[in-house]
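Sample entry copied in:
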Amino acid sequence: MCGEGRAVCLGSDVDTDRIIAGRYLRTKDRALWAAHVFEDLDPTLASRLKGTVLMAGKNMGCGSSREQAVIALKEAGVVAVIAPSFARIFFRNAINIGLPVIECQVACKEGARVRFNLAEGWVEVDGARCHGTPLSPKMLAIVRAGGLVPYWREHR
């Protein structure tokens, strides 16, 4: 499974409270979550996320185990998240929601063209390729299906 988008660079230890603040979780309105993604980090970022690949430092998605953080990113139009390491619950939530994630140590250039291949585990930033960790066949199937629930419906 391949994809591409333009890079948005983040630092290390981006926690789920930074992705979507708890004050917005009193509702199940995914559009509201998407509109307020990263609001406390950069109030203008949510409106610029459609078609982007988030490129973070180590420990992406640490903090609360809220799956709403991953849902908010996907709803905001994030194509994939790339980082050298993820908090395990964030990584699993991303797979379960159908948001592509790749563990790869790669330099980020804001706005650069990013291409990726989940099965082979590579990432290209403006044509420079780095190799990371490919997703397992089962994880690939879940992401391809659009998440765990659609995967289960498809494979009953």
Notes: DSSP finds six helices and seven strands in the chain. Helices lie at 16-19, 30-35, 68-75, 88-97, 137-145, 148-154.
